[in-house]
Amino acid sequence: MKIKNFIIKNKHIILMIISFYLFDFVLRFFTRNINFYNIFSIAPNLFTISWIILMIGICSFFNKNISKIIYVIIFSINLALFLTHSIYYSYFNNFFDFSSLQYASEAGAYLVDAIKSSPIWVYITTFIQITISYFIVRFMPNKKCNYNYKFLIICVIIFGITHFVSPLTLGNPVTTWDAWRIPRNVYISFNDNNRSMQVAGFYEYNIRNFYVNYLKEEEKIEDENLELLDEKFNTEQEEYKNEYTGLFKDKNVIFVQLESIDKFLVTKEIMPTLYELQNNSINFKNHYSFVSGGGSTFNSEYMINTGYTTPITLNKGAYTFSKNNYSYSLPNLLKKEGYTVNAFHMNSPEYYSRDVNYKSFGYDSFNSLKNLDNGKYYTDNSYWLDTELINNPIFNEKIFNKEQKFASYIITYSAHMPFDVNKGVCSLLVENKEEQLSEYECLKLQARETDNMLKLLIENLEEKELIDDTILVLFADHYLYTLNDKTLLDDFKTTENNLINNTTWMIWSNDMKKKDVKEVTSQLNILPTMLNILGLEYHPNYYLMEDALDDDYEGFVFFNDYSWYDGNVYVENGLVTNGKKISEEKLIEMNNLVNKLVKINDAVLTTDYFKNIKNETKNN
């Protein structure tokens, strides 16, 4: 009898709990194909419970009429957000972000289609929620007292405790290469909308997303760093031009990021196609693919597309800056000149948050072999093979666009670890599994698979009559640090310091005479060099490093431990440890320059500096 009386007396609160929880659970349940964090995990549900308790405390604080108004306002806001997220996700496959409001004027073009394409569960839930809310308003008691202080205080205390505990249940944050897939890191950075919704739940997501976009203080720049940024970006630049400016203007371009293709693999025996392509290429003989922060492969992608590297002085991955402004990124500048710009890889878009980051960079699409037809296209692991990037008819049609100028960014995979006949790509390439192959023999097989992809790429360009109108930009993401037996590297390259990062970069054209460039380069030189050679908009001071084909370019590479190399000397801890002697004055000058570049790089990324440049351009 007591239970029955309790239910009757508090039926409006019980219905409120059900109603508020439904918004969260239904949204996460019907978008669970994101498949990052279990919908029944503690964190998102605890976050939701904490917010429900607070909302009920607020709705129960006033007398009947005011409580009704407060409830209706809170319910209406939640319903509006629920519908916005549901419709937005059904159309864009991504949850709504408050930063998207800046594009609200463009929404009319797709709003009607988005509503029409929304799944039925959105409207069923909406009908149920409106029905429940009607009864909640009807059942609210007619309280004589003005304020229910005690109940509100209890609710606030419970909210404070549960909200404090909730993020702790996500585990500890990490600074390793795979930080992007650690729930606590996702919650802290809050830059991946889909994963953030899964770890935080509906209410926490909305509040935190609003906070991150509008209330969170911008990173403060030290006065010294502010002066460096002002000096770099406010310096008037003369129109940049050299003998290579616009050499390949209006040509199609295919960037091929070669997974683990170390320099010693580019031989006639192991990779005959890539070896042959060198004969019609600009070859950067002293190129370095250095590692900065976690995730060497994506770090190279970030450098090629933005001209900056992962912050060196902070424990932040490159994939945490997806909300930054990238107006002057590679894909955005290509699109300004009428190119279609698409990226291709075998792995799922969620890996390294590429789906979020490539959209942020400005790509029209990021395409995954693994996720084709919602993961149903491939029933085995053949999508690991680089040749599938070209042989797959869906990818092939998109990579080679005969109707419009195109830029395709291809990320290979086949030379990825492990190099074992019973595992990974090597197991797909060896017919006789009883055959005993060494790690090096597997590596050569896997590198040949990548080379076969390049052969197919050239053949397709010829068949589609695009060979004379397309250039290739071929570069390694990193050296072969993934070998188990790293003593193998001692036979082929310097291994005692950061010069182990020496890799391959070449620019190929069918009608080009071979040119060797001896100046030192890194991934940070690729973007400015390509902007100039393609005749795209190029502001040299907008990027960290320079066009490597400029007559005045004095090549050097710096590494994340502040060591550097200019082709003559290798400097570590501020001292020359390898190479020729240089003057004390030059040594101090270069050490200061490296320190300056690190500070500029980190300040640009952490303060989203290009957002300011964009706003200043608008105002002017």
Please outline what is shown here.
This protein is of the alpha/beta class and 620 residues long. It has helices at residues 2-9, 11-29, 42-59, 64-92, 108-116, 120-139, 149-165, 183-189, 193-215, 223-233, 272-277, 296-306, 330-336, 354-361, 387-391, 393-399, 424-429, 439-463, 523-533, 584-606, 609-619; strands at 252-258, 281-288, 340-345, 365-368, 406-411, 470-476, 502-503, 505-508, 515-522, 557-558, 564-565, 569-572, 575-579. Helix 3 packs antiparallel against helix 4 (64-92), helix 3 (42-59) packs antiparallel against helix 7 (149-165) and helix 12 (296-306) packs parallel to helix 19 (523-533).
Provide a descriptive summary of the structure in words.
- It is globular, with a radius of gyration of 28 Å.
- Strands 1, 2, 3, 4, 5, 6, 7, 8 and 9 form a 9-stranded mixed beta sheet that branches. Strands 10-11-12-13 form a 4-stranded antiparallel beta sheet, covered by helices on one side.
- Helix 2 runs antiparallel to helix 3, helix 4 (64-92) packs antiparallel against helix 6 and helix 8 packs parallel to helix 9 (193-215).
- The chain has helices at 2-9, 11-29, 42-59, 64-92, 108-116, 120-139, 149-165, 183-189, 193-215, 223-233, 272-277, 296-306, 330-336, 354-361, 387-391, 393-399, 424-429, 439-463, 523-533, 584-606, 609-619; strands at residues 252-258, 281-288, 340-345, 365-368, 406-411, 470-476, 502-503, 505-508, 515-522, 557-558, 564-565, 569-572, 575-579.
- It folds into 2 domains: 2-215, no CATH class; 245-619, Alkaline Phosphatase, subunit A (3-Layer(aba) Sandwich).
- The protein has 620 residues and is an alpha/beta fold.
- It is built from 21 helices and 13 strands.
- The longest helix is centred in the first third of the chain and has 29 residues, at 64-92.
